[in-house]
Design brief:
- It is a single chain.
- By secondary structure, this protein is an alpha/beta fold.
- It folds into two domains: 175 residues, Rossmann fold (3-Layer(aba) Sandwich); 93 residues, Pantoate--beta-alanine Ligase, Chain: A,domain 2 (2-Layer Sandwich).
- The protein contains eleven helices and nine strands.
- The strands form two sheets. It has a six-stranded parallel β-sheet, with helices on both faces. The chain has a three-stranded antiparallel β-sheet with strand order 7-8-9.
- Helix 2 links the parallel strand 2 and strand 3.
- Helix 7 packs across helix 8 and helix 10 packs antiparallel against helix 11.
- The longest helix has 16 residues.
- The chain is globular and about 55 Å long.
- Bound molecules: pantoate (PAF).
- The site of pantoate has 10 residues, from strand 2 and helix 7.
Length: 283
């Protein structure tokens, strides 16, 4: 497996692939890879000749220094895991902060038609400027035909689709379903940092989302939200940050249900100091 730490070396390879008319799939990650990442890579391999996986813990998208410091960094294990999928059709790009930011570790400022102000944007200051900055930069370096993102970060997925549209970036952005552990917990690199007790209770998030979905059939968004808040109040090991039912296009909280619109329910909750997010399609 080829592993690049340097964008100019990767760029030579990309030039060669392009010269040979090969399709490039791209899976951007922050490492600590798990089954969820592998399913994105497998989907990429089924639709492209080569898949580039970037592994880079992007400092500008963290509003919490402690979270950035503690974010798991496991490059050796990540490469081994990728090898179980393919050794010759996957290319890893694991740059340094300097290779990406060239001395200026700063986000560009973006507007994504207001998508950036909802949910994660409201609770994590500057987060989507950081995400927009790194993803745009990575798209420029990797020049992929298709890029794959998990729906666990559904707001991020919608924002990246908007980024590509607003900046005319020639890449097809493909959203992939959430991968879950057997007990329903959405796969996340942060799960490895949960204490055994928090890990045991964390599937409560998905269980609550599923119940919220069934209630949404007959009840208003307000009633469902009140019910969810009550469930979390009775669950001492998890602290709900938000539960929001939103229109999937605007990501704005639903006021009055319409049969013409599609909705998702979104949760962010703390298990100790680990922040978990999850979501579910409602209709
Ligand atoms: O979803 C992630 O892991 C990150 O936000 C991404 C897209 C790799 C950008 O750093």
């Amino acid at each position: 497996m080829k592993i690049f730490h340097n964008k100019s070396e990767l760029s030579h390879l990309i030039d060669n692939l392009k010269a040979n008319n090969l399709d490039i799939g791209f899976v951007p990650t922050m490492g600590a890879l798990h089954k969820g990442h592998l399913s994105l890579v497998k989907k990429g391999l089924s639709e492209n000749d080569i898949v580039v996986v970037s592994i880079f813990v992007n400092p500008t998208q963290f509003d919490n220094k402690e979270d950035l410091i503690k974010y798991p960094r496991t490059l050796g294990a990540d490469v081994e895991l990728l090898r179980t999928v393919s050794d010759d059709k996957i290319v890893v790009y694991a740059p340094s902060v300097e290779d990406i930011y060239e001395g200026k570790v700063q986000s560009q400022s973006f507007e994504f038609d207001g998508l950036e102000n909802e949910m994660e944007g409201a609770f994590r200051d500057g987060h989507f400027d950081g995400v927009g900055t790194i993803v745009k930069r990575l798209f420029e370096i990797v020049r992929p035909n298709r890029a794959y993102f998990g729906e666990k970060d559904f707001q991020q997925l919608q924002i990246i689709k908007k980024l590509v549209e607003l900046h005319n970036i020639p890449v097809k952005v493909i959203g992939c379903p959430i991968d879950r552990a057997q007990d329903g917990l959405a796969m996340s690199s942060r799960n490895t940092r949960l204490t055994p007790n928090h890990r045991k209770v964390a599937p409560f998030i998905y269980k609550t989302l599923k119940s919220a979905k069934s209630k949404f059939g007959t009840k208003s968004a307000k009633k469902v939200s009140e019910w969810v808040e009550k469930q979390f109040n009775e669950q001492p090991l998890l602290k709900l940050e938000y539960f929001i039912i939103a229109d999937i296009e605007t990501l704005k909280p639903v006021k009055r249900k319409s049969t013409k619109k599609a909705y998702r329910a979104f949760i962010a909750a703390y298990a100790g100091d680990i922040r978990l997010i999850d979501n579910i399609a409602l209709n």
